[in-house]
Amino acid sequence: MSSLTEKDRPIVQLLLSTGTCPRCILRFCCVGSQMLYRQPHQDLMKDLQEFLKSSQEQEDTVCLDVADPPCKKLRVEPGEEGADGLNHNGAIPSADNGNSATESSAGKVCNVCLGVLQEFCEADFVKKVCQKVNSADYQFTSFVFSVSLPPQLSVRERAAWLGVKQQMRNLGLPLAKDDIVQLKEAYKWIIHPQLSEELGVPADGKSLFEVSVVFAHPETDEECHFLATACPDCFKPAKNKQSVFTRMAVVKALEKIKEEDFLKHFPCPPSSPKNLCDALEIQCNNGAVFVAGRYNKYSRNLPQTPWIIDGERKLESSVEELISEHLMAEFKADSFNFSSSGREDVDVRTLGNGRPFAIELVNPHRIHFNAQEMRRLQQAINGSSDKIQVRDLQLVTRSAIGRMKEGEEEKTKTYSALIWTDKAIQREDIAFLDDIKELRLEQKTPLRVLHRRPLAMRCRLIHTMRAEYMDQHHFRLQLKTQAGTYIKEFVHGDFGRTKPNIGSLLNRTADILELDVESVDVDWPPTLAD
């Protein structure tokens, strides 16, 4: 085994004798060759045995040339070892030809990785993972592999490292913890090429398709618990966490606890478990896909999002649902998140070129749609209801959605309002409205939305107005306003909470009968050809 040198011999012999698997031994010897970890377990064990045998033969040769000093490999009687596990000659105790050390590890569950680098690197387990992936029926062109390990593995690795560190210290050799190959890294070195070959796609750290395995080891679950007494500040209850003994909390505690305190509570080296880890879950997850477009709403009895009050649904559908149900079905997603450039009330229509919207489709199984397929999807949405229409339906990136919200309050929106007045009006009574430019309003949060929005005073601008006389009590008002302006309140005043308002400008009571959004001046998403 060319990657190992003479200074690794005491580490190999110590770890083999305490029940550590060959791949974990390579990690503690700081071996960085990925190909070496991919060799079969039995071959690695044989190589380690040959390594110990060849090293011993060299020492035996040296011993034969020395007359007086006893051979370092002489066996010691039970009880002759020092406190640090070394015999009186300063050598690590070993059996003939290293065979007993090898036998200690052969066929046992590793006392460090709990079997993760043993059975779970074999072809049978890889096929099991791939069967799970293929049965889930996802579209993907690459994958990223993640693994969740039991937190007690960190405790066991610390115990093994402290043992190795002590031996190296006694031999006058340095060992830095950072040099040890991390278990997750070694596991991915082994598993990546096997998964890639079986799935037929490359492993890519930036892939949006994730294959994850969650390992658990119930037999040793309580091995972390002593840390809660030693470092209570590291273990605090958190939302959505079933246990305080998370991997991060355990790692944090291990960084704080002193070596002598650790060794009082945990055996060094760690004992060999009876059972392998359990592969508790094999999961697949695709990164979110984002679809954007513009919608028109033609109904005055349709909310933008589901209208539910105190658990009771008020109306049977919504803009969000009419659009999303088709997208959810085609993309085979688990759930969705809807967002838009502003929102209209349930009784307000959205006309013109529509309101920009975006939908995040969570964990979609299908992700590849060409322009023609998106056009057909748009047609399906439009054919399903006369209450809405969508246009410019397209796939976008997560970052592009930010453009919909950028400078939202600086954007302008155009409205058409049908207004009633209590006192009769003539054309000349409303003509002056056309001349008003950049009218500054002060709007307190409207009473009708105060239950869901904080009380605040907002300054808004009415850029332009154009009044169209209809009869003595009705006229239509076209307004171009700053986004975020409450139009209904600008008309009736909201009991004086919006100043000035149409009622105060006309010196009479005014109310709004109908309101339409004529345009939302956000240049996104890009317009598509019909």
Automatic annotation (TrEMBL):
Q: Write the Enzyme Commission number(s) for this entry.
A: 5.4.99.25
Q: In this entry, which stretches build a coiled coil?
A: none
Molecular function (GO) terms for this protein are: metal ion binding; RNA binding; tRNA pseudouridine(55) synthase activity
What InterPro entries does the database record attribute to this sequence? Answer: PsdUridine_synth_cat_dom_sf, Pus10-like, Pus10-like_C, Pus10_N_euk
Pfam families in the record, alphabetically?
A: Pus10_C, Pus10_N_euk
Catalytic activity annotated for this protein?
A: uridine(54) in tRNA = pseudouridine(54) in tRNA; uridine(55) in tRNA = pseudouridine(55) in tRNA
Task: Report the GO terms under cellular component.
Answer: mitochondrion; nucleus
Span of domain Pus10 N-terminal eukaryotes: 110-284
Tell me the ranges covered by the Pus10-like C-terminal domain, including all copies. 290-521
Q: In which compartments does the protein localize?
A: Cytoplasm; Mitochondrion; Nucleus
Q: Which family does it belong to?
A: Belongs to the pseudouridine synthase Pus10 family.
NCBIfam families given in the database record: pseudo_Pus10arc
**Protein name from the UniProt record:** tRNA pseudouridine synthase Pus10
